[in-house]
Design a protein that fits this description.
4 copies of one chain form a homotetramer. Chain A has helices at about 15-30, 40-45, 50-55, 60-85, 90-100, 105-115, 120-135, 140-155, 165-185, 185-205. By secondary structure, the first copy, chain A, is mainly alpha-helical. At the A-B interface, helix 6, helix 7, helix 9 and helix 10 of A face helix 6, helix 7, helix 9 and helix 10 of B. The structure holds a DNA duplex.
Chain lengths: ~210, ~210, ~210, ~210
DNA sequence: GATGAATGAGGGTTCATTCAT
DNA sequence: AATGAATGAACCCTCATTCAT
């Protein structure tokens, strides 16, 4: 049987695969170390037999990687849709910050994913290779941000006197910064919300006309 | 025997421990997945027997964590010294960027360490707990940055109209962003150097009077 | 439902069972290790569902054993018929050698079967037990040879001054020797044909008047 | 560490390897199906830890194959020595038959080994490949027999009017036949001894002047 | 009846840790 | 003190067998 790749459309996903993905993402959201996840953890949480997982995936690593790709590409696509409802760059950026902080599971997965994109763990390396091959670039948040900025530049909302790369990277770094703060334990949850307006203000002051 | 903690002074380190740390850091610098490092990899590279490692550490994880703490606290202390030679905030920040990009091994370890501070892997969790207990805060780059900014504010070089947290986080995020770009494969190495002046200019424009 | 035993008459065999047997024997003829044959290999080659195989057999081992019994008893019966067309012992023996070398699949299965009769693998042990119970002795090539020799002795063609057992065993050993040589890779295929006249001559010289 | 090959000299064998070999051979002698032997069976019988086996061998199959090569090459070498004490071909052949029937364990291993040389099981295939590469031909009983016959021909004891191959194969087939009969359950043990003189007489009548 | 998706017991292999030398 | 051979718990993966459809 053809094994999963992580890029299947939502409706193409067999039920069992959906359960496997959900199990992995729950574990990740619970803060379990990805490297410590056991196949039996996943299948038990998914409520299916261990062997079944291997009908859809070749290795444990595949299960986890596909679950992460699934989560992040889904998240990015959802953010794309949400952002497209706004016309101004500023509103889009605000929406972006709101979107990523929204749900714990997604936030955790996104963080994990971003880490992996700049990490040298096994999962990181594999994901980077996958991303490089990924024609749809569905998983690349950078691509999303780049498009957003380019269009805003075309509309004249964002300065063109700074390199596109710099603007995109700045946006990304502030976004991650925000996520990192959000993710810290409770006490700082407030701090995150206090910082948000400053982060946005800083961004707009630097890049918007 | 008392086991190592990672906070020993340089001169307190037994020779064997030094060799163990060096081995771990070399492996990390080579891009080996921390989770994939085996005790035999470490001791072989260190040129000592496996049993000896257990005279100084209780578990494999301890060896790795202490090596990382050692590397990062050393790095931060060295940066402290380097920075203290400059009097202006701008020069200090420039020096900071130069320092972290300087050496591959350090950069890699620093990245790994930072990842771990915002990660939920086993090593991450342990390091975070250790950092929370760490009275000297020797390992906390944030503390260093905070001190730097506070003093600059006292000297009137940095604005006090923005929250200290925000300034520190911004500085940190730009620094990490820069490191991440530096760490990408060859092609981008140039991109990193092209971005640097913009990053610094952006920082100074936002925070310096 | 009553499960198969391997001794069903050709016309009693359900179509699916025929397909299963054919699949097993093809695999064996392809040189696949009997111990490595998977149920899915068999049913896939047979073009039927896995569950169906278990309607006719209790275990995987049963499928394989019955297929082998089927192949060998069929082969022996066919050889019996072919031999009965000849009246002289010498002609019968020549026919015997021709018959066993005839078809690759049969030769392979026969070899496998003979191995199993003098082996201690699981299949061997089971087959030996079965053969001991086999009232018809349909599977026992030795019985065929014994009858052949006994009748030839009665007709005065074969010496009675040597023990029957010895003559039968000698015949068997030469036959197997010949098969073994036939089965070696290509180069020796010729060698087999060169040896054949010597093998027969030796046999006849020793046992025929 | 360098792994075992099965061709180590007796005195080169680490103690643990010796124990592993002994365990495998005991199991084989007990009539356990080679394909059913578990690593834990071997190490338990050997009285060592499971992991230790993997210090000396890469896979379970390696352990078993090396044990068989060890047993057979040892046996053949011992037979070589025993045979070399006799000067006449007839005495040598008699000694050969005595030697192979001598010890249960050896007989069983030799049978297993011979099976494997004309079989298509995994072990068989691997052993055949090894034997083809084996420069010493230490494991090849055929080589031993061939030398024996050639020398006897040179001494004028064995006819040169028959092809060498035929003589060697005949000798081999009678030898194996004899072993097979010896190996059958109790009742036939006697039969074997009754057959022996006829087998030898037949051989000598056919090949000796 | 026929199927093949699902199961989970079982076994090969790895590697952190120990301890006799 | 230092070693590394030995251990065995742990875990991934396979595949015979079942059973709902």
């Amino acid at each position: 049987m053809g094994k999963m790749t992580g890029y299947e459309k939502e409706h193409e996903l067999p039920q069992k695969v959906r359960q496997l993905y959900a199990a992995v993402l729950e574990l990740v959201a619970e803060g379990v170390d990805v490297n410590a996840i056991k196949v039996s953890d996943i299948t038990q949480k998914a409520g299916i037999g261990k062997g079944t997982a291997y009908d859809y995936f070749d290795t444990k690593e595949d299960i986890i990687i596909c679950a992460l790709i699934y989560a992040v590409s889904g998240m990015i696509n959802r953010i794309k849709v949400e952002i497209s409802q706004y016309e101004s760059f500023k509103m889009q950026v605000e929406q972006l910050f709101t979107a990523v902080e929204k749900e714990l599971v997604e936030r955790e997965c996104f963080m994990r994913f971003v880490h992996m994109m700049t990490d040298s763990s096994f999962y990181a390396t594999t994901l980077q290779q996958r991303a490089a091959l990924d024609v749809h670039k569905e998983c690349d948040a950078m691509v999303l941000l780049r498009q957003m900025v380019e269009e805003a530049q075309r509309r004249g909302e964002v300065t063109t006197s700074l390199p596109l790369d710099y603007i995109v990277f700045s946006l990304m770094s502030k976004l991650l910064l925000y996520l990192a703060v959000c993710n810290e334990r409770q006490e700082r949850e407030d701090k995150a919300h206090q910082l948000k307006p400053y982060i946005l203000k800083g961004l707009f002051a630097e890049f918007c006309r």
